[in-house]
Amino acid sequence: MLEVRNLRKTFGDFVAVDDVAFRLEVGGSLAVVGESGSGKTTTARMIAGLEQPTAGSIAVAGKERGPGRPRGAGRRARAREIQMVFQDPYSSLDRRQRVRDAVAEAVRLHRPLRGPALAARVDELLDLVGVDERQAGSLPRALSGGQRQRVAIARALAAEPQVLILDEAVAALDVSIQAQILNLLAHIRTTTGTTLLFITHDLGVVPHICDEVLVMRSGQVVESGPVPSVLREPQHDYTRRLVASVPKPGWKPRRRAQPPAA
Amino acid sequence: MSTAPAPVLPSAGRTPPVRRRRLDTATLAAAAVVGVFVLLALFGPLLAPHDPNAVDPLGVNAGSSAGHLLGTDDTGRDILSRILCGARASMAAPALVVLVSTAAGTALALCAAWFGGWTDRLVSGALDVVFGFPGLIMAVLAAAVFGPGLAAPVIALSIAYLPLVTRVVRAAALKERSLPYVSALGLLGASTPRIWLRHLLPNLAPLILVQATIGFGYALLDVAAVSFIGLGSQPPAPEWGLMVSNGAPGILTGQPQQSLYAGLMIVVLVIAVNLLGSGLSRRLPGGAA
Ligand SMILES: Nc1ncnc2c1ncn2[C@@H]1O[C@H](COP(=O)(O)OP(=O)(O)OP(=O)(O)O)[C@@H](O)[C@H]1O
Ligand SMILES: [Mg+2]
Prior knowledge:
By secondary structure, chain A is an alpha/beta fold. Chain A has helices at 40-48, 72-79, 99-110, 115-129, 133-136, 145-157, 175-192, 227-232, 237-244, and strands spanning 2-11, 14-24, 29-34, 55-60, 63-64, 82-85, 163-167, 195-200, 212-217, 220-226.
């Protein structure tokens, strides 16, 4: 489904991403893990086409993705290949656009729906991510970070993409909301068959959502493979340290021992 | 771990201040004054008690009276009627300057911010050159070269005001386009015109409006100055800047009413427009206090 070869990005003399390569099958899910600054976002942006790779190639469903921004139908076809949910939920939505309108705009770019049919599709997407009627009619500023992240996911799904990239989609959220979003993503994966590329700096959340994992450090892939084997027998020192910092393989979202003092 | 309530720190844990503060009294008053001036521009001629160009050789330089509330000028024309009838002409030229410079400046700014690279360098470089010429001098030169009248100064001032508008809007547009929602729209396959018209412009509109408001004050002064030195509106047009200069000899001979009242209109409108502009700018996201 998604094949990345020799991906490289330099900013001046600085090598942000160095020779990253992986394959992801249809319906698969790959976690990209690494500490801050390891090049995860840069990799994701290159795959999504938001950043021009210095070298390397990206193919979706066997089709090479060229540089530049295609026009008209080509642009919308490309949108149906890859969608991305961004790291910062607070600026991922137009602050002047009601949630429902934002999702409707995305739907209309990909399906010739109007009136009740459009509204039904928007409701379906908002239902899927668990955004209720009242939130749907609000401006983004009335929504919490987790709610906005859900809207961003619904908007991305409106394009019915083959690959969905989530860049630290849960990093800005607290632990219980994290768990909700992770469950939501697992649900979306099973109901829509979307291929997931899940970027995170937290190895602990990986088993809940991904089958495969790829560990990055200073722009390079240090280790990759199926999640259970990488977590059980990490080959690389760096991965071992990452694994050691996670409570235990069967990680459950931690709950706060007591409510925070008022 | 103690369960004792944490000391309440000032501002800690409070909800962030609501961005849409109510407008303060000064701004509201300024808006009301500007509103009155706009009404004058629209309906001034209907309110004028006399023909603004009717001379009265027997009643020159008269003081206030029941017949002539603001007195008469050096040819006996009713000053109140001239001020009311001149409102439109006095405000239309600066409004046109602001309209043209704002529209063109916004378009240039969006192109520079959106396309970046050489487009941005070309726009910024060209405007740096224009920025070197003060607007009033360009307007006076234009009138001197192309002949008196407001057309040439309006064009010159529109160009002179471009750099400021473009710089402010470009900086804001750069910030706006770097927000993830714009990338998300691009990824969804939204066209560039759609992103500009439906998303970037509406989000930049408040800032553009504030810029235009403040720019109008400057344009009003500049246009009045061009008319004052005799290169703008030509007699007998009842334009305020021209009236100030027509009445100037009267100031020395104890009949200041023409310059005084026409000048007062300009000053009051400029102050009101500036107060309104700065009041509105405080409501912009990230605006001071
Ligand atoms: N536009 C840019 N210009 C210069 N350097 C950049 C640019 N974008 C990213 N970098 C650098 O590339 C490196 C990788 O950045 P990237 O954002 O991909 O890291 P990340 O793994 O996503 O980190 P985080 O977990 O903090 O989001 C960083 O050192 C960063 O400073
Ligand atoms: Mg990142």
